[in-house]
Design brief:
With 406 residues, the chain is of the alpha+beta class. The chain has one domain: FAD/NAD(P)-binding domain, CATH 3.50.50.60. It has 13 helices and 20 strands. The strands form three sheets. Strands 5, 6, 12, 13, 14, 15, 16, 17 and 20 form a nine-stranded mixed beta sheet that branches. Strands 1, 2, 8, 9, 10, 11, 18 and 19 form an eight-stranded mixed beta sheet that branches. Helix 3 runs antiparallel to helix 4. The radius of gyration is 22 Å and the shape is globular. It starts with a strand and ends in an 11-residue tail after the last helix. The relative contact order is 0.17. The structure holds flavin-adenine dinucleotide (FAD). Flavin-adenine dinucleotide binds next to helix 1, strand 3, strand 12 and helix 10.
Amino acid sequence: MNAAAHYDIAIVGGGLAGSSLALALSQIRYPLSQKPLRIAIIETKPFTQTAFSPSDGRHLALAYGSARIYQSLGMWDILGSKAYPLNEIHVSEKGSFGFTRFKAAAEKVPALGYVLSLNTLQETLIKTLQEKNHIQWFCPDTVTEVRRDNNVNFLQLEKGMTLSAELVIAADGANSAIRTLLNIPIETQHYGEDALVTTVDATQLTHTAYERFTAKGVIAILPISDTRAVLIWTGPSEWIAHLRQMDLQVFLKTLQTYFGYRAGKLTNPGKFHVYPLQLIVAQKIVQDGVVLIGHAAHTLHPLAAQGFNLSLRDISTLAEMIETRISTGKALFDLQWLKAYSQLRESDQKTIIRLTHRLRDLFSQDLFPLKAARSLGLSACDLFPPIKSALARKAMGIAGRLPRAD
Ligand SMILES: Cc1cc2nc3c(=O)[nH]c(=O)nc-3n(C[C@H](O)[C@H](O)[C@H](O)COP(=O)(O)OP(=O)(O)OC[C@H]3O[C@@H](n4cnc5c(N)ncnc54)[C@H](O)[C@@H]3O)c2cc1C
């Protein structure tokens, strides 16, 4: 390898997770010199695709706790102005009497969450990062080799550069190359399901998000304005392929049959985007001088809208712990503190991964006893405020130990 340019931290992958962590780290200063950390971001897509592409149709339901994290990073004024607040979430199952509603007022929060376009979030993060001259982008480029020598990681980039860094962050997505290069095993489950994402006009939107479990998958309607909403229909891949090929009027009729009319009449669908769904969980998220975050650490089914919210809590805690290491003059590569980070995040990660996976399993079977139990479960949840509140606070990312958020 050539002589290496040295960084405190190298982040591989400049997607939502990588760029959010870079933003959090950009605020850390060395105590005496007040110098910022030297950060490298290696991103395989050119900027035009990473930040400014309209090709990703996803909108994210950002939990209230995630909005607080972005607020602590000084980003919420701008992100909040582009996001649509959710005051209520309504969960039901087609053909069953049970339903439950979560309300912001009952939880005494200004909103349960906010709906924001993934492109807008990504674009805003990258524009902010590009203004910071202690962050260097290697883009488009990729890592072909990781070598560790004397507590330093050496990254060989495809275009010929060699970087060295005390800490490497793998934020390179579900098929993480860093995870593979380091032989970190994963647990994976192919659901045989896809998510179809589009937008629709809706005549009755009132800051309410709907989630409806049906025999043909889960339909979520998330408002993005007073008249337009994102539709996310997750279900068996053959069914999603069938929906995709339908004449638009037939599609809308099918949608209305399965979803009902709670959001009024649904019309004028936008472009269809399809995402394959699987569960991927890295069997460890730290090793000597390396941390996995975002989809590289855990890729979840989107039915509970928890994937990135969980990652953001990981990121916030990691940045907080890095700040403490820097302020006390301690090394970043040390495996003991990396393990302490992993342990601190373990309970939240396990709970959300299990909850999402079991929820998907529970609602994917149409057997009568299960359906009756689900209906009772939804009603019980609605009738017992403490259960509902505990669930709401977990989903909002404000239960248990919280990352520092203000
Ligand atoms: C349909 C759908 C709806 C969702 N809705 C929600 C929601 O409402 N709420 C929520 O919290 N979450 C949601 N999620 C999850 C959320 O989208 C993900 O958690 C998030 O996008 C993952 O971001 P990431 O940065 O970890 O990964 P990615 O977005 O995959 O980013 C990885 C980055 O690394 C780059 N890269 C890849 N390989 C390399 C390499 N070898 N070298 C350098 N760079 C590399 C890629 O180009 C990319 O920029 C949803 C997911 C889906 C599929």
